[in-house]
Amino acid sequence: MRRIFGVVVAAAVLLFLVAQLYRPKIEHPPVTAEIQAPPEVKQILRNSCYNCHSNETRLSWFDEPAPAYWMVARDVRMARSRLNFSEIGKLPPAKQRGMLFEAVNMIQLGAMPLPSYRRVHPGSTVTAAQLETLKAYLNPFAPAVPPAMTDAMPTTTATRSAAVQVTPELNGLAFFPDYKDWRAISSTDRGDNGTLREILGNDIAVRAIASRQIQPWPDGAAFAKVAWQAVPDAQGMLHTGKFVQVEFMVKGKTKYASTAGWGFGRWLGPELKPYGKDTHFASECVGCHMPVRDNDFVYTMPILRTATQREGQ
Predict the structure, then answer these.
(1) Phi, psi of 150 (to 5 degrees)
(2) Pick from 121-135, 202-216, 296-310: least confident
(3) Which pairs with CB-CB distance under 8 Å and at least 24 residues apart come from 181-187?
């Protein structure tokens, strides 16, 4: 038995040593355009995010041996492709804030830093106080909208007629010209970029809500998220202003299997220009919705009333 045990240990050691020979390189490009943010915000990001989401990756000693190194190299490659704090400084400030908003949302939902990463790097955890610092920097709906924007603006979702042909998204998803007739499901806001949003659902989605068939949502269920600029009045109340964009997500378990079973699309401005540079834009949407994968990737969950509540309506 001792001899067998010795052979097993020797084989394990040999396998471990051989594994060290394969080390996919983690590149360290120069920092060309770091995110523009206050020092206290950058410090939190450096502590909790930069090891994967920047060009300044620093590995702990226990990250160096394979197979741990392989997982780290994969995570760094994927993280940089989605958000790189060493390079987003070249983007307009509003775009930087938008990307940081998405990151803070991930932190708030417990999706980032990755739970598996936090378990072995407990120091990367964003504390409640640090999260408040990040949220305060985003400073919802401030600075105030410039006076020039407080004039009355059209609140229509788009100026184009439904009869005008709208170009499909780059992934082939067609525009829904009748979305303005869908039922309102919820509303939300984005303080970082000063927008108000309404979520609408098509008939299939509304019927699924009524019958409580939302885990998963049925094929054909579709949602529209319409965004307008938030315009304050003299009393400080916010109203919808200029139309910004409309986004769709359409359930298709087989058709959209590569994007978590949902087809995503976004059309920008009154001209309804499709978003993205290529078909890979949808990976951004999937990444954003990953924290709610247990809800079939849908953020807006309907409030389901009990029978007693319905009878007392």
Answers:
(1) -85, -5
(2) 296-310
(3) 182/206, 182/222, 182/224, 185/209, 185/223, 185/300, 185/302, 186/300, 186/302
- Type of residue at 189: D
The string of pLDDT tens digits covering residues 250-292 is 999 999 999 999 999 999 999 999 999 888 889 889 988 988 9
CB 166 within 8 A of CB 268: no
Structure tokens at 194: 């000063």
DSSP 91-120: S-HHHHHHHHHHHHHHHHTT-SS-HHHHHH
Gap between the Cα atoms of 96 and 37, Å rounded? 9
Domain with CATH 3.50.70.20 in the chain: 147-303
How far is 70 from 264, CA to CA, in rounded Å?
31
Amino acid 93: pLDDT: 86
Cis peptide before 143 (omega within 30 of 0): yes
For residue 149, what pLDDT band results from cuts at 50, 70 and 90? very low
Do 57 and 76 touch, CB atoms closer than 8 A? yes
- Compute the distance between CA of residue 214 and CA of residue 205 in angstroms, rounded to an integer: 8
Is the torsion defined by CA of 198, 181, 269, 146 positive or negative?
negative
pLDDT in tens, 76-88: 998 998 899 999 9
Predicted local confidence at residue 194, as pLDDT: 86
Q: CA 297, 207, 287: angle at the middle one, nearest 5? A: 10
What mean pLDDT comes out for the span 196-212?
Answer: 94
Q: How far apart are the first and last CA of the chain?
A: 75
Q: Which fold has domain 147-303?
A: Chalcone isomerase (3.50.70)
State whether residue 210 is helix, strand or coil: helix
